[in-house]
Each structure stands twice: as structure tokens, then as C-alpha cells.
Design brief:
- The chain is α/β, with parallel strands linked by helices and 328 residues long.
- The chain has two domains: 134 residues, Rossmann fold, CATH 3.40.50; 185 residues, Dihydrodipicolinate Reductase, domain 2.
- Helix content is 30%, strand content 23%.
- It contains eight helices and 14 strands.
- Helix 1 links the parallel strand 1 and strand 2.
- Helix 3 packs across helix 5 and helix 3 crosses helix 8.
Length: 328
């Protein structure tokens, strides 16, 4: 079993290496690729130093290629890699909406992975974190309308986004001018309701990703979903507040019971003890935290709940490795 990571030195690539090791993924050879800027550096895997190679403009000798170098690279080369016999698990948005490319969250639609034609898409991190919690509730009660507001960490913009938060926060505390390059505005002590580009309907592409991808993964083309995506000054865990109207009667107790046995979910819902999902506690966890489960006061058969999940894990690297495990 030969595995390759394209974009190995980025934030997601580094997490991929950790997750492969922690989950004892059955591979015989791991090859790491990156741009010219990082080629030649070394990274550690299973106590061995591996040299990062320059991403080739052509075939990659691997059985599974995890692509985390951006949509442009994946769009240009994924078919070439797949044409040489590899299965490409792509972390970008390049292939998510292609009707012939399965979009997979293993806790939800693992069987769809069998229909791949050489490429499998990994969903957007925001979608994945919400969907893991929403899916078991949808199966039990029939989600009809979904309204979600997100609180997204700077890791969603990669290692550069996290570094900008640290650097500019330090500047603010030192009384120096606060700048911004990665984000549209300074991120320290701020929230920015703008992630990705604005579309013709005045939603951002990040917001529409949640709509498009949830429908595709669930196989529910008519599900009504609306999203507001907001960047906040945290490092790596996304949080989301969801209001869901269901087709069938639902109660917080029934929802907790369903979620308690759902794969990939940890119920953290003890408000009296100040226990609820938070980026601080969700960071580093494979499971998504779900809590603040309560009856919605405005609509019948509706619940409100709050989700936190590690954007670099379930939102990216962990889901990728779980897909690779399906292939094995």
C-alpha cells in the first residue's frame, strides 16, 4: 500500500501525517510532495525522516493520493494521478460538485465511495462538522429546514491564517498597527461575516458550500438550508449554531438519545455544569462535540443545538484518512 500526500507541508498535510500514524493506517510507503518552496525539507513519520519531494507535473507512484494543495492543483492533475491507477482523495473544492465524483463522509454515506472513478471528494470542513451531527437527527426525525450560523477558526484559511491571527494579535497587544493579508479585515478581537467570494444571491461561496454539499451527501436535493459563515479569532476548531425544523415530533431528550449512539459524535450537554461544545475542548478531538440541545421557541417540531469540531481533523485530515480506510 503506497500513499502519497500532495501539499504535505501545509496545515492539513501535517495533520494527515499525524492521523495516519495515530490510526496505524496499513501503508508500506509514504511519499510527501509540496511546492518548490518546501521541497527538500524533512518530516517525521513513524520515527523516520522523510524528504519532501517537489510535486511532479505528471503521474505519482501511489495507490492512494491525498491532495491538499488547493483546487487549482487538483483540477489540473487529479485525473492524471487517477489514470495511473491511484485513487485520489481530494481535499479541495475542485471535484465536490461533479456528479460523477462521490462526496464522502464515512459516518454518513460510505457505500457511495464504491462508485468512484478514480477520484473521491472530501467535503468542506464546515459542512463535515455540521453534517456528522445533523445526519443522525435527520434519519430519526426528518430534517426539513436548516438554518446555521458558523463561527469559523482561522485554520480554515490554512497555516497562513493561523499565523496572521498570532502575529496581528501580538501587534495589537504591543500597541502596534494591526494589518491583514489573509483576511479581508484585521482578525484580532474581530468577527468577519465574509468567507470566500460573494455569489449572485448575496451569499458567500462558503455559505453555499454548506447548502450544496449537505444536499449531495444526504441525497436530499430538496432540503432547505440557509447559512451565514463568520470568521472568528480562534485557531483551529469551527463551531456552528443550528436551528432545524423536523417533519416528525422531536424533543431534546429524544435528540440526545439519538446523538449519544451516533458515530463521530460526542454529546457535551450539561449547561448547569457549564459543559457545552467549545473550540477549546473540541480541538484535537476526532469526534464532533454537540450540545445546547433545546426546543426552539419560534417553530413547531424544531430544535436548536451547537456544534464544535476540529477543522483540521474531522473537517479535513481525519475524514480523508477515514475515506482511505474505506478503500483499504
Amino acid at each position: 500500500m503506497r500513499v502519497a500526500i500532495v501539499g504535505a507541508t501545509g496545515a492539513v498535510g501535517k495533520e494527515l501525517i499525524k492521523v495516519l500514524e495515530e490510526r496505524e493506517f496499513p501503508l508500506d510507503e509514504l511519499r510527501l510532495y509540496a511546492s518548490a518552496r518546501s521541497a527538500g525539507t524533512t518530516m517525521t513519520f513513524r520515527n523516520q525522516e522523510l524528504t519532501v519531494e517537489l510535486t511532479p507535473e505528471g503521474p505519482i507512484p501511489a495507490d492512494i493520493v491525498s491532495a491538499s494543495a488547493g483546487g487549482g492543483v487538483s483540477k489540473k492533475w487529479a485525473r492524471t494521478w487517477a489514470g495511473e491507477g491511484a485513487v485520489v482523495v481530494d481535499n479541495s473544492s475542485a471535484w465536490r460538485y461533479d456528479p460523477e465524483v462521490p462526496l464522502i463522509i464515512p459516518e454518513i454515506n460510505p457505500r457511495a465511495a464504491k462508485n468512484h472513478k478514480g477520484i473521491i471528494a472530501n467535503p468542506n470542513c464546515t459542512t463535515a462538522i455540521l453534517a456528522v451531527a445533523l445526519w443522525p437527527l435527520h434519519r430519526a426525525f426528518g430534517a426539513k429546514n436548516v438554518v446555521v450560523s458558523t463561527y469559523q477558526a482561522t485554520s480554515g484559511a490554512g497555516a497562513e491564517g493561523m499565523q496572521e491571527l498570532l502575529d496581528e494579535t501580538r501587534s495589537f497587544l504591543d500597541g502596534k498597527p494591526v494589518g491583514h493579508k489573509v483576511f479581508q479585515h484585521p482578525i484580532p478581537f474581530n468577527v468577519i461575516p465574509h468567507i470566500d467570494s460573494f455569489q449572485d444571491n448575496d451569499y458567500t461561496r462558503e455559505e453555499m458550500k454548506v447548502v450544496w454539499e449537505t444536499r449531495k451527501i444526504f441525497g436530499e436535493s430538496g432540503m432547505k438550508i440557509s447559512c451565514t459563515a463568520v470568521r472568528i479569532p480562534t485557531l483551529r476548531a469551527h463551531s456552528e449554531a443550528a436551528t432545524v425544523i423536523f417533519e416528525r415530533p422531536v424533543s431534546p431528550a429524544a435528540a440526545r438519545e439519538v446523538l449519544a449512539s451516533a458515530p463521530g459524535v460526542e454529546v457535551v450537554d450539561e449547561p448547569a455544569r457549564a459543559r457545552y461544545p467549545m473550540p477549546l475542548t473540541a480541538t484535537g478531538k476526532w469526534n464532533v462535540e454537540v450540545g445546547r440541545i433545546r426546543q426552539n421557541l419560534a417553530f413547531d417540531n424544531a430544535l436548536d443545538f451547537f456544534v464544535s469540531g476540529d477543522q483540521l481533523l474531522k473537517g479535513a485530515a481525519l475524514n480523508t484518512v477515514q475515506i482511505a480506510e474505506l478503500l483499504v
